[in-house]
Specification:
heterodimer, A: mainly alpha, B: Rossmann fold, 4-stranded antiparallel beta sheet
């Protein structure tokens, strides 16, 4: 710890120490990765579902950056997910099948879209912004449907990836290498996001969420900063979209579905917004519930929508900070008792 | 009077047909202790908003240290040395006191967009935060979230944030508003002890505060300047007494 000179009191020293050490890793942070590896070995039959969960965690993380940290509400994050997906698929179908190039191109393409749409949309806020973000992804979905010579329309595009580094094939049958591939990309992306939110940039985003008027009054160009985080979030959503289609080997207009935007928003509300691990819990619970409902009650849409609707209402009523908030409370109680 | 640090020329703001600021020519000297008084609806807060750039004027201009800043955005004016407090607390309610200061200082020092190094590791920012906590005697509340603080303490954080911006000009919009009279002396002491090199403009209803603090007073009525002068001049001005002081309960 760096010593702070001047007239510190015990109270200020404690406060400084708290801020200086807040970014440190807690032992519990190893849990999601241990579970992910355990699932791979112990439940090989569920690797497809688990792969989908990993991708959704990444997508949810990207949304949490803007919703949970910067307080920018969006119902159209599939605009970036879908754009990343189509860019990757189109590259692969046009003789650029390298999956890593696909990821990078997806990130850049989604980031450019994020910049262009964000610059205009982020001049609005609240409900207006919500509807406009939704409109963008619906519009892109319609474009993908209309330009069917390029996108394959409703049927979509089938493609094959080349090997990663010319060595590792992304298998689309047993989800062995593809599971590990997705897990590694998620892990690296997570480290990046975790670093960002603990850096001054992340604190600044929280300031924007808490009070934009005050942010302007301390000299923050709020709109510019909102666009900046929107671009970063879009790039990560683009990577998630790319992964989603790479492991399946095909893309359809479903990647632009605004219902999926709603789903991912529900995931972070369920898990808890503005706390990163909420995305892990939310995406996992959401996808497992969806799968269970289908197994028990059948694939009829109303059953699933009823289930998730009830779960969401219960969360909002009894766990305002999401399921992760419950874990936090238990952790606090535990600490109090052991002291 | 020395060359003004902040100045307006023929500044006007209309909301529809209503002239809220009416051709105001106002100058604030470096290091001044200046008060703006006036009855409710005189356009005092509007004037502050025009000075900070939160509002843009219908006509006229604003100068900072001789340079025209009329077209400059609010955040740029802050970076150039104009800080303000709000009449109603405008703070990061869910964050601790030290984090409120942290945000202001990291923005001022230009590290707010740094993406890699953990926030607490910048010791220049932390030292400055501790320094400001000391000045306003907020040490014991460093880690208290704003919404848990009594309103009077929150008012101190308003001033602390403004000081953390290292301003040349400080605009205080009713700093003691909403604070019980038994506690308002804490705010006033803080205002009294502001560094002398900062030009302070205060808007205040409480005449005791104004006459204790100000070396110069401007009286604003219906958006226009009615009178300006030393506290004694203003107290003796019959016009001012008629429209303003006479209405109050000042003794």
């Amino acid at each position: 710890m760096t010593a702070i000179t001047g007239a510190d009191t015990a109270a200020t020293a404690e406060a400084v120490k708290f801020l200086q050490t807040r970014h440190r890793f807690h032992w519990a942070e190893v849990l999601p990765w241990v579970i992910a590896i355990a699932v791979f070995y112990l439940l090989p039959g569920y690797r497809l579902l688990a792969t989908q969960i990993l991708v959704m965690i990444l997508f949810a993380l990207s949304l949490d950056l803007i919703v949970g940290y910067a307080g920018i509400i969006s119902l159209g994050h599939t605009a970036f997910f879908g754009t990343g997906a189509y860019i990757t698929a189109l590259l692969a179908a046009n003789n650029i099948p390298d999956p890593l190039i696909g990821l990078v191109a997806a990130a850049i393409g989604a980031a450019v879209l994020g910049f262009l749409s964000g610059w205009v949309l982020l001049r609005t806020a609240g409900l207006t912004l919500l509807v406009l973000t939704m409109a963008v992804t619906i519009m892109l979905g319609e474009l993908a449907n209309d330009f069917d010579e390029i996108t394959g329309g409703f049927d979509g595009i089938n493609f094959t990836n080349s090997e990663i580094f010319g060595l590792i094939e992304i298998d689309q049958l047993w989800y062995t290498s593809s599971y590990i591939y997705v897990l590694v990309v998620l892990f690296l992306s997570f480290l990046l996001i975790r670093t960002i939110v603990h850096a001054p940039f992340g604190r600044m985003l929280i300031g924007i969420r808490e009070n934009t008027k005050r942010m302007s009054a301390i000299g923050t160009p709020v709109h510019q900063r909102q666009v900046l985080v929107y671009v970063i979030s879009a790039a990560i959503a683009g990577i998630a979209g790319a992964l989603w289609v790479q492991v399946q080997g095909n893309v359809t207009t479903g990647v632009y579905a605004f219902e999926l935007s709603g789903d991912v928003l529900i995931m972070i509300i369920l898990g808890g917004t503005g706390r990163l691990y909420g995305a892990f819990i939310g995406a996992t619970v959401f996808k497992i519930l969806e799968s269970l409902t289908e197994q028990i009650l059948g694939t009829n849409q109303p059953y699933w929508q009823l289930t998730i609707g009830i779960v969401l209402i219960l969360t909002v009523l009894f766990a305002r900070r999401g399921l992760y908030g419950i874990f936090e409370d238990i952790g606090e109680k535990w600490k109090d008792r052991s002291q | 009077m020395s060359k003004p640090i902040l100045e307006t020329r023929d500044l006007a703001k209309n909301f529809g047909a209503l002239a809220v600021t009416d051709n105001v020519n106002f100058a604030l000297a470096p290091g001044a202790r200046h008060a703006i008084i006036g009855p409710n609806g005189a356009g005092k807060t509007t004037l502050i908003n025009l000075l900070t750039g939160a509002l843009s004027p219908s006509s006229g201009s604003v100068y900072l240290a001789g340079g025209d800043i009329t077209g400059m955005a609010e955040y740029q004016r802050v970076k150039n040395g104009i800080a303000r407090t709000f009449q109603i607390n405008t703070l990061f309610m869910g964050l601790s006191v030290i984090e409120n200061l942290y945000l202001a200082i990291s923005e001022r020092m230009g590290v707010a967009t740094s993406l890699v190094r953990p926030a607490g590791k910048d010791s220049a920012v932390m030292e400055e935060a501790v320094r400001i906590l000391n000045i306003l005697k907020l040490e014991e509340d460093s880690l208290t979230e704003i919404h848990e603080l009594p309103y009077g303490r929150q008012r101190l954080v308003e001033i602390a944030i403004a000081l953390a911006l290292d301003p040349k000009v400080l605009l205080l919009d009713e700093p003691a508003a909403g604070v019980p009279t038994t506690e308002s002396h804490i705010i006033l002491d803080a205002v009294d002890s502001l560094p002398k090199d900062i030009a302070v403009l205060i808007i205040e209803h409480d005449m005791d505060v104004v006459f204790r603090f100000a070396e110069r007073i401007t009286v604003l009525v219906r958006g226009a300047i009615l009178a300006e002068g030393s506290p004694d001049d203003i107290a003796a001005n019959e016009e001012v007494q008629a429209v303003y002081l006479g209405e109050g309960s000042h003794d």
